[in-house]
Design brief:
There is one protein chain. This protein is mainly alpha-helical. It folds into 2 domains: about 200 residues, Glycerol uptake facilitator protein (Up-down Bundle), CATH 1.20.1080; about 100 residues, no CATH class. It is built from 13 helices and 3 strands, in the order αααααααααααββαβα. A 3-stranded mixed beta sheet has the order 1-2-3. Helix 2 crosses helix 9. The longest helix is centred in the last third of the chain and has 46 residues. It starts with 7 loop residues before the first helix and ends with a helix.
Length: about 350
Amino acid sequence: MDATNYNAQEFRQKVLSDLVIKTSDSMILMCAILIASVGLNMNSIPVIIGAMLISPLMTPILGIGYGLSVFDFQIVKKAALLLFVEVVVSLVVATLYFSISPITYASSELIARTSPTIWDVVIAFTGGVAGIIGARKKTSTNIVPGVAIATALMPPLCTVGYSIATLQFSYFIGASYLFIINSAFIMIATFIGVRFMRFPLHTMKSSKENRRMNVILIILSLLVVVPSIFSAATLVQESIRTSAISQFVKEEFPDDVVLDQDYNDETQKLVVTISGDYMSKSDVASVQDSLADYGLEDVTLDIDQIPDLNELDGAELKQYLDKYISNQEDNKSVEQQDRTAN
């Protein structure tokens, strides 16, 4: 046996000692969830990463996976209880924070935790594999903290707290699903990893019971994965459509100042606000006919023409100019992504 790794008995004792509900760990968790909530609220990635580094949420999930793998249901019960307590504490702290925070809008970091995809499944599973390997090592490593950052267990819980505080049900569903994805696939990866380590079963089970456990985990995996595949497909389609719209506006209105472009996904309507020479009906029809060349044949185009910027008052001019600057920045971002992809 490698001296740098725990043997089966030592690892079991380590897992059991880590699954004790301690006041100190609860205080650390409360601090971590508060820091993460502030980071999400202020859109600060470094603060969010710092919170994930000190979060103890990985421990009970690894414990559940280990306990199921060796049929040690004492560990499964202790880990499940600890996870329940930590989730409740996290939600209470996050909900209280967002209830009193003066910043009530959803930052981009919050919104990013509401649309999980199949890539989150891949990250959680590979992170779980790395996590169980790191947890078995006797020497301290950066593997488990790295997994905690990659799989991001804490931000989804903070986002659930935000959705409860602000009564935004759609955010609640998306963030809860992301937390379930991360937790389930870290647990499944741990289960598989422990089986590969060939730890002896704590309770001897028949091959039939082993197969039953495997089938249950496969069914659980499918139930969790399938919605994320549809979410990923939707995300890809939206990305392609956004890129196509940006290209369409850039190429079809080269001599105009595009003050705003707004696409409504529900109505599939694109409204482009431009300033420049007045476009005739035939010119407008020609531009509308060109939508199909960009894969936007299902999109309805509405061109809002403002021939003279002097017709706008100060507030309207500022509003359109701000949108114009924002659109230019978005177009540059899309171009950079396209160059990176090529």
